[in-house]
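Box 3.1 — From sequence to structure: undecaprenyl-diphosphate phosphatase
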Amino acid sequence: MNLLTNIHNLDVLTFYWLMARKHRQLLTRLSRIISMSADGPLYVLLAIVFWLMGHQDWAWLLAVGFAIERILYLILKKGFKRNRPADILDDFTSFIRPSDQFSFPSGHTSGAFFIAYCVSEWFPSFSISLYSWSVMVGMSRIFLGVHFPTDTVMGALLGSICAALAFGVLV
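Predicted structure (token representation):
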């Protein structure tokens, strides 16, 4: 448990360091837009577009892989029950209302990295753009005050692993 306490303390220090360096209004507005770009319904729309374009196998991979990612995400979220920054830090209020109670891992970041991995497999020339977007999603969740840095790092890892598994099993 001492290791987890040390990680948490480092996470809180990093969180405060990032919060002190952002230009609040502009970065908060940009973070909201970037964060919304990683909302789940857009992934469903992407799968429908692939289906309509005749790529039913891609749509199925997205659906099955994302379902696995969501199940693991929920297990981790309910298992760790890590409170969000605004619930732990006395002197902090987040800039948005989170969709659920717990912080670890970041679902937005996990979904973004899942999509980035999958779409990069099909369209490699977009890899840099997709992964840059994914990193910005993770950073936006920190800047909006709803996640600690390790929440987003673990979200990125979860999404990438689930996509790799989907490709390994389904393709």
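Summary of the box: The helical segments are 2-21, 24-36, 40-52, 56-80, 85-88, 107-122, 127-143, 149-170.
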